[in-house]
Amino acid sequence: MADTGGGAQLITAEAPTADATRGTVVWWQRHNGRWRQAGSAPARFGSGGLTEGTTRVQGTSTTPTGLYDLPFAFGTEAAPPGTAVPYRRVGPDSWWCEDNASASYNRWVDPRPADCAAAESERLADHPVQYGRALVTGFNYDRPVHGRGAGIFLHVNGRGATAGCVSVPAGAMARILSWLRPSAHPHLALGTAYGPTALTRY
Predict the structure, then answer these.
(1) What span, in angstroms and rounded, lies between the C-alpha atoms of 31 and 47?
(2) Cα angle vertex 91, ends 129, 166, to 5°?
(3) Which residues face 89 on adjacent strands?
(4) Which strand (E) or helix (H) includes residue 31?
(5) Contact 166, 157 (CB under 8 A)
(6) What is the pLDDT of residue 30?
(7) How far apart are CA 202 and CA 196, in angstroms?
(8) What Cα–Cα distance (Å) separates residue 112 from each residue in 9, 30, 36, 97, 152?
């Protein structure tokens, strides 16, 4: 890869092609300068496939490729044992604001502010399976570009492809959260096996 984020932990999410909705998530630990696989799981991607993160358009159900940090985790369930990353419990008024007109665009809000329309946002408690446990990705997070997309997570599988997130089985999600260490500066790399969105480009 061109960049692994400078830390000692990396999660890779790779699809075979840009139009695929299934692939593999692998988590890696760097030790003595070498990356060693710490675990893997089958993954699901957006129903619209994958697309370059810097040019993604909101509402396309595509998973944005790129290298992202992992600001915090959340869930309707308690954090698994050993979790060291910041973890927020989902309550009845916990929302992810996806309203392009809101000052809280692409942010956790609790409660939902007046300028963030419910119809344009996601009430996290409404998805108790997928958001049983989840990791926020840094896609469009630090300085959000309105219209690029909001609420891209690594979360537990639902019934099928996602709306743009990456999902894994519940057991894998728990193992990832228990394994992550903020001191290792973990990142998530999303991409395809080859082509313009190849994982190795990021």
Answers:
(1) 36
(2) 35
(3) 75
(4) strand 22-31
(5) no
(6) 97
(7) 10
(8) 33, 40, 42, 8, 18
* Alpha-carbon distances, residue 57 vs 47, 50, 82, 106, 164 (angstroms): 14, 11, 36, 14, 11
> What is the Cα–Cα distance from 77 to 194, expressed in whole angstroms?
37
Pair of tokens at residue 115: 């300028």
Which residues make Cβ contacts (< 8 Å) with residue 8, sequence separation at least 6?
A: 29, 30, 31, 184, 185
Please check whether residue 150 is in contact with residue 98, taking contact to mean a CB–CB distance below 8 angstroms.
yes
And the tokens for 19?
Answer: 């139009």
Helix ranges (DSSP H) in the chain: 170-179
On whether the CB atoms of residues 99 and 117 are closer than 8 A, the answer is yes
**Distance from C-alpha of 130 to C-alpha of 112, rounded to nearest angstrom:** 20
Cα separation, 129 vs 162, in Å, equals 13
- In 3D space, the residue among 83, 84, 82, 85 whose CA is nearest the CA of residue 71 turns out to be 85
Q: Strand runs (DSSP E) across 45-201, as ranges?
A: 50-52, 63-69, 73-75, 87-89, 95-97, 107-109, 122-123, 134-136, 153-156, 166-168, 187-192
- 187: which 2 tokens? 């990142």
**What percent of the chain shows pLDDT beyond 90?**
100
Residue in 12, 27, 22 with CA at minimum distance from that of residue 43: 22
- Model pLDDT for residues 106-159, shown as the tens digit of each residue: 999 999 999 999 999 999 999 999 999 999 999 999 999 999 999 999 999 999
- What is the rounded distance in angstroms from the CA atom of residue 7 to the CA atom of residue 37? 15
